[in-house]
């Protein structure tokens, strides 16, 4: 039986977040980064191991660890987030609904994408998510544990309750989504704007890793979305609606946008215009890149207009939030790859010089999984806040037991805790008990 948790919950979650976001890390590195003493870190890691949220690996005998002089003491154990604890990352587009199982260690365990014959309503999307998740859970390994669901929506989302206030490409307005989906699945569900999630994912794991001030622009089937990270935190505004950079003004004589304005970025730089002139499939970015490389005059004229609009939008963002890095995803990343430094040159030509001293404009590194990784962070939010797994056994819409329900560390009444107990490979049980006692006062 797992020992009752006696460590400080805040410190348990703190260590789990570090391992999840920065791992794998050694116990010595955890000690340095948290400022806690070695015995406390030992106890905290031990508790996470008992919950099945992390596991430890011990270097082979005689191996010199990176964090100690060779031959001095024992190598520090490496702590890795579990690959068996997963969140369901949901993306909803005008033509597809996708559900991806992302593990706490960042690996993608499985995915299903369902093409939609028409733009899905909220009800249709909820049914599709339940159906896809049912298939994924039915074929999943029994040891997987599903802890939450995160949804990336191409629109304005009220983050506190997951109501989609306005998703114009989907035709959704004031649609409850996270709540009904949670009732359908029996799992915690959170929803947010897709580009905001993409910005945070690139900051944690992608081309802006560790950057505290960045702007992210993603071009996809539902137009252009933007997300901002400022001072190391997501910049969401009063109601979570900040970052609508697709609707920044770039052309006085431009096309009227669905939002009612004229000359928005997403009307002046659009995936549809590029795929139409290149004759490529809308969702085939590799084919688009190859077609752009051919350099046909008609294609280059469209590219020129879009680069001009994009540079103006980036200039607006720089003068507003002063980012260090601008990350371009989706077809905007392909466009950047085609024109190289031209986007940055155009931006610098129309921006106050001091504000571009450190500026970098880079393609998104996470590729098609950028929104998936961001949505997964939402799915892990409750777990990373308190280090506790859900207390209810999730079920799919058909009533089938979901992934590894009986393996959830804190299960529903009447079930047993079957999480793998910690192994005392590196220390005795007495040492662990002493460390747990010390951690009570941490």
TrEMBL record:
Residues 414-442 are annotated as: Disordered. Residues 10-57 form the HTH marR-type domain. SUPFAM superfamilies: Actin-like ATPase domain, Winged helix' DNA-binding domain. Signal peptide: none annotated. Residues 414-423 have a biased composition (Low complexity). InterPro entries: ATPase_NBD, HTH_MarR-typ, ROK, WH-like_DNA-bd_sf, WH_DNA-bd_sf. Residues 424-442 have a biased composition (Basic and acidic residues). Belongs to the ROK (NagC/XylR) family. This is ROK family transcriptional regulator. It comes from Curtobacterium subtropicum.
